[in-house]
Amino acid sequence: MDYRELLFLRAVRETGVLDAVVTDADTVAAVADETGVTERAARIGVETLCDLDFLHRTDEGFEPTNRMLGFLSKTDLRSIGTVPHELDTLDDWIELPETMRTGERPVPSPDATRNRLGAMAALDDGDVRAAVTAAVHEHPDADSVLDAYGGAGTFSREFARRGYDVTLADTPEVVEVDEPLLEHEPVTLQATDPLDGVEGTYDLVFCANTARTLSPADNEHLLSALYDAVAPGGTVVHVDRLRDHAENPGLLAAEMLARTDGGDAYAEADFGEWFAAAGFERPRVSDVPGTRSQAVAADRPAND
Fold it and tell me: Do 117 and 178 touch, CB atoms closer than 8 A?
């Protein structure tokens, strides 16, 4: 999305124009009166929302289009789309100077988790299939899969479609949001932070886009916590973007500085150290075809 579009959407959200036009303000003058912006700003704001296909002009005033649903949906993650999470991310970037001074990220918006899961639910189908295929390639004989920090269940559903016995483990806050979305899917939900360990053992443990959001200590802790969840001879696979494979590794690291409490851009050697510390063996890295990500895998010894 064009940076100007994101900054404009942030402005109409912060000034209340967005809320006004989707509730009871049906004229430019009403938008200005309700929000306190100038009539010029209200006019340009409404016209631009129409031009960007967030609003549709009607004889009675305005009505939201499907593209606006992400700002309105509170129940169906699939209706949220990527834009609300992109705006949350923009807020993090704007607050980066303060984060750099204090070491503390700004307090997330109340809808931040739902927005993040909505963006995950809208991931490109081809990227999801490619990531799952790369993970399956690392352990072709697997029957059971644990999707650790599985978020909106985007990858869990793809594993389930391929016939795997799938469990998604994530924090209680995330699982509560997931339940309506996944209630008709053959995916078992486990409300637990994987850093604290999970129940059961699995042939394949899968983590997507998780490592870069965690500190080095938490990454080592996570793999140690997941070691018991991997059946002897089983495999753990991280699908993520690696520093030594990324086009702009510095920007990837800066994004994690802005958006996470301890995340960074990590290299193959970092994963190798974490795997070894947890007891995994035979670490290896491969590119996920058609994406910017890599699959980083290692095995639990079969005689363990």
Answer: yes
